[in-house]
Amino acid sequence: MASPVMITREIDARGSYCPGPLMELIRGLKSALEGEVIAVISSDPGSKTDIPLWVQKSGNELIEIESLDGGAARFIVRKHVRK
Amino acid sequence: MFGHTAQDKQQQLAPLPAPAEATPPATANRLAIVLFSGTIDKLMSASIMATGAAAMGMDVEIFLTNWGALAFRRGDYTSNTRVSADYADYRGTLLEQMAAKKVTSWMENLEGAKEIGNVHITACSHTMTLFDLQLSDLEPIVDEVIGVAAFIEGARDSAMTLYI
Amino acid sequence: MATTYQVDKTVDAKGQVCPMPIVTLAKAFRDLSAGQILAITATDPGAKKDVAAWAEKTGNSLLEMVEANGVLTFYLKKV
């Protein structure tokens, strides 16, 4: 079980349609500093495939996905951690 | 300022999905179809392309969006006789000839394609949300609901991409 | 005049409309062992080229195609 992560900024994108939540994550990471953590809350089912895929391709780190009430999920992403 | 509190931890933690499970790895030997239409003339065309590709050993990726997704609602195909509006005058003939020549339906074609080849059918999350649909509201032949990025990624290296 | 083949399996795809003939062919081939010969009849004009293309793509052998009275008969050998 991961120790609590400090989220630098959280964006609530509930109600936003694909690809909205992904765009919010991309914008959020763009203005973040290396190592900072951005969380996006999404109610869009497409985020479950799109966000992990994008994070992997872009070389960022998907820390975790939390299931929330009402079918939403919180995607927690750290910017550009080189392994 | 934003940290996890003990309260947050009580939420159920979902396991990280391997991105590879979202769509099969992109290969050049693939036909990708964006199926936007829900009229039977276009559904038939898409299903024949998919079946031909599957028979020829290509991977097939079908992304159902807009009317294409609605056409896959459970049971809808049994009563869908919509034809493209521009060719409304051919509708009668088309339906007659399909029955007279015992042409396999577009759904049967897709079932056959899945049986003989590697066919993956996904539904567009945007459309599903707009029309308040879940995967369980669709025919079981649809494998999963995905977002646009996942489709693009799966289709980008395809030998052929069709927009129907 | 067709050569006489030792046909192991016969499949009737007459009346089937594209794409069914090659779906029927692909399904029938799955049950064959290497070296076995299948005969398939079809009336769909598209089948002429489709069957040849399928055979070439899958690496199986199209031995012969016979056309008589609008019926096409294909003899294929599983490689």
How would you explain this protein's 3D organization?
The complex is a heterotrimer of chains A (83), B (164) and C (79). By secondary structure, chain A is of the alpha+beta class. Helix content of chain A is 28%, strand content 28%. Chain A has one domain: Translation Initiation Factor IF3 (2-Layer Sandwich), CATH 3.30.110.40. In chain A, helix 1 links the parallel strand 1 and strand 2. The model of chain A has no long low-confidence stretch (mean pLDDT 91). Helix content of chain B is 38%, strand content 16%. Chain B has a five-stranded parallel β-sheet. Chain B is built from eight helices and six strands; from the N terminus they run αβαβαβαααβαβαβ. Chain B starts with 5 loop residues before the first helix and ends with a strand. Chain B is globular, with a radius of gyration of 19 Å. By secondary structure, chain C is of the alpha+beta class. Chain C has two helices and four strands. A four-stranded mixed β-sheet of chain C has the order 1-2-4-3, covered by helices on one side. Chain C is globular, with a radius of gyration of 11 Å. The model of chain C has no long low-confidence stretch (mean pLDDT 92). Strand 3 of chain A pairs antiparallel with strand 1 of chain B, so a sheet runs across the interface.
